[in-house]
Design a protein that fits this description.
The protein has helices spanning 9-18, 23-30, 34-42, 49-59, 89-110, 129-139, 150-156, 192-208, 217-231, 234-240, 247-257, 261-270, 276-288, 305-316, 321-328, 332-338, and strands spanning 80-81, 160-163, 173-178, 181-186. The chain is mainly alpha-helical. Helix content is 48%, strand content 5%. The protein starts with 8 loop residues before the first helix and ends in a 31-residue tail after the last helix. A hairpin with a 2-residue loop joins strand 3 and strand 4. The radius of gyration is 23 Å and the shape is globular. Helix 11 crosses helix 12. The protein is built from 16 helices and 4 strands.
């Protein structure tokens, strides 16, 4: 059987969407007519060898990528997206495409390492977001303490956390359950505080909407309320709240919980610690100082601890990012973008087969330690 005969047309469609291209744009880039691209994608006929080489170059995937089995792409109705109204269909498809590569990478990693098992409480369909946040804190033994590192906490509870490989702030984050395993994808273009809130927001979806479609304005509001309560427990906020909050003392206060200035202001109002007038006054001042676009006194950005340990262990076995990319039939850049852009630094690969000599069990240092 020739390579042309086993060309997988569904992988071409997936790759085109992953790169955010329409059929027309791909046709122009390839120098072919739209009819040809449509035929490639429907499987009517496969591209000739020279056309396949150009497709691989334009879409930035190795030619071998187009000869594998169908990819498992996260379905739109199983993933929770924030800011749906601001997101284009192309950005959504690109984000879901990132999720598909992350599933491949995660499967490859779990074939070689024992990662923490999922420990996300199943609270059913009942309960308020505030009550759910309290229940998760109780289940995880967090009490009223601030969360030092939201990404590390999620990973310690078996949530797989990957960075969102898309250059668009309109796509905040998304999450999903896949075979009883929770996934969270975070956009690293956001401030550290907004990234922490996004991680808590997605935890809210995983807890609140595990048994229902996680989309819609009401679901987003519930996840926001969960994140606010989870990161800023009511009793803790009341204990620290100033008698007359100002922007300057709120900038100091927000550091306790690692949240944005806007988030702590909203939480104080939600708990009745700010009048409506005072809340509006503070928000106007936040906007006038430019703090809605640039977070003041930004904290350190959180990254995956699990992935750092995985790649450190692979480094000892002489396995680099190019070895991993080769095993997945993707470009090394696609792998880099999913791992917060740092875990593979310095790993250039040795050319050896990516077969580790051992199967380490990885743990995450608790965010409370």
């Amino acid at each position: 059987m020739s390579t042309i005969e086993i060309f997988n047309s569904s992988r071409l469609t997936w790759a085109r969407r992953r790169r955010g291209l329409t059929k027309t744009k791909l046709a122009v880039s390839l120098g072919v007519d739209l009819r040809s691209v449509s035929a490639y994608e429907t499987g009517e006929f496969a591209p000739e060898a020279d056309k396949l080489t150009r497709i691989a170059r334009v879409l930035k995937f190795p030619e071998n990528f187009f000869f594998g089995d169908d990819l498992e792409e996260p379905a739109f109705d199983t993933a929770s997206f924030r800011s749906m109204s601001k997101m284009t269909a192309s950005q959504r498809d690109t984000a879901l495409g990132s999720g598909a590569i992350a599933l491949l990478l995660n499967e490859w990693i779990e074939g070689r390492f024992d990662l923490p098992h999922a420990d996300v409480p199943d609270l059913g369909r009942d309960g308020s977001p505030e009550g759910a946040a309290e229940a998760v804190r109780r289940a995880w033994g967090l009490g009223e303490l601030p969360i030092k590192n939201m990404v590390h906490l999620l990973e310690a509870k078996g949530v797989r956390v990957y960075s969102l490989a898309i250059d668009a702030v309109e796509v905040d984050a998304f999450s999903m359950w896949r075979q009883d395993r929770p996934f969270v994808f975070l956009n690293t273009l956001k401030s550290a505080e907004h990234g922490r809130f996004d991680a808590a927001h997605e935890l809210g979806h995983l807890v609140l909407h595990r048994h229902a479609a996680p989309n819609g304005q009401e679901a987003e509001q519930d996840a926001n309320s969960f994140a606010s309560a989870f990161l800023m427990p009511a009793a803790s906020v009341r204990a620290h709240a100033p008698r007359f909050p100002t922007i300057d003392n709120l900038i100091r206060l927000k550091k306790i919980w690692g949240v944005s200035l806007a988030a702590i202001t909203y939480r104080l109002h939600k708990l009745g610690l700010l009048t409506d007038w005072h809340y509006r006054k503070l928000y106007i001042e936040i906007a006038s100082r430019g703090y809605r676009k640039t977070e003041p006194a930004e904290g350190p950005r959180e990254v995956s601890q699990i992935l750092q340990k995985v790649f450190a262990a692979l480094r000892e076995d002489g396995i680099g990012k190019h070895d991993i990319a080769c095993a997945l039939n993707v470009h090394a850049e696609d792998v880099d973008e999913l791992v917060f852009g740092l875990a593979l630094t310095g790993l250039n690969g040795s050319g050896r087969p990516p077969t580790p000599k051992r199967r380490p069990e990885l743990t995450v240092v608790s965010s409370r330690e």
